[in-house]
Every structure is written in C-alpha cells, then in structure tokens.
Amino acid sequence: MLVDINQFKRINAQWGHRVGDKVLVSIVDIIQQSIRPDDILARLEGEVFGLLFTELNSAQAKIIAERMRKNVELLTGFSNRYDVPEQMTISIGTVFSTGDTRNISLVMTEADKALREAKSEGGNKVIIHHI
C-alpha cells in the first residue's frame, strides 16, 4: 500500500518546512492509530509512505485504507489537536495479491499505478489493484 499526502508540496511552500514537518508527524501518528500493531509503516520518499500488511484479504485492506483516509481528513480538520493549519487528505494506492507474489518490483509498480490513479481522480481516494 502506498500513501501520498495530498498538497504537501504546497503546504511546505506556503507555510514553511517546520509546518510541513508537523504535518508529516501528524499524518504518521494518525496512520499508526489506524493500522494493526504488526503492520509495517515506512517513509519511502518526501510525502510518500509504504505500508506492508500480512494476512489480509482485499475487503480488509479496503477497510483499513478507508479508515486511514477518513481519519486523516477528520483529525486534521478545523481546530485539530495536531495544530496543522488546514485539513489534510491522503491518496492511497493498494495492490492485493491473491497468490504467492515474490516479485517486489511488480508489486511496487502496481501500487504506484493505483496511487497515481487515486491522485488523478482528485485525490482523497483509495484505489486497489489486483495481481
């Protein structure tokens, strides 16, 4: 699963890197509250994060992704406890493998395609691809 913080470059440009860092920390906290203890969250680059889940079916993955998306939108809204200056949203691209997919390059390529699709449809969306 790939997660991209929508409008993050604009936030950094408009509010500065200190606020950008606060946004990053806030979103990470919200995502960590939204996933299971054994799930793995890693910052891949800039405003893009990767999540690795095991023992999930497609429906469960969709539920977790939607929970993350909704929580970010809700918990960064007006007068939020994170003190970020505006409501934030995320776009999520997920790849679900029904088999024993060991080709990490294929998995990452499909997750990236799903993420780009979510962003091209306006962001604040979850897209799942199956391989």
UniProtKB/TrEMBL annotation:
Give me the Gene Ontology terms describing cellular component: plasma membrane
Q: What is its EC number?
A: 2.7.7.65
A single GO molecular-function term is: GTP binding
What cofactors are annotated for this protein? Answer: Mg(2+)
User: Which terms does the UniProt entry file under GO BP?
Assistant: cell adhesion involved in single-species biofilm formation; negative regulation of bacterial-type flagellum-dependent cell motility
Keyword vocabulary terms for this entry: GTP-binding, Nucleotide-binding
Q: Which residues belong to any copy of the GGDEF domain?
A: 1-131
Q: Which SMART domains would you find in this protein's record? A: GGDEF
Pathway the protein takes part in: Purine metabolism; 3',5'-cyclic di-GMP biosynthesis
Q: Which reaction does it catalyse?
A: 2 GTP = 3',3'-c-di-GMP + 2 diphosphate
From which domain of life does this come?
A: Bacteria
Q: What is this protein called?
A: diguanylate cyclase
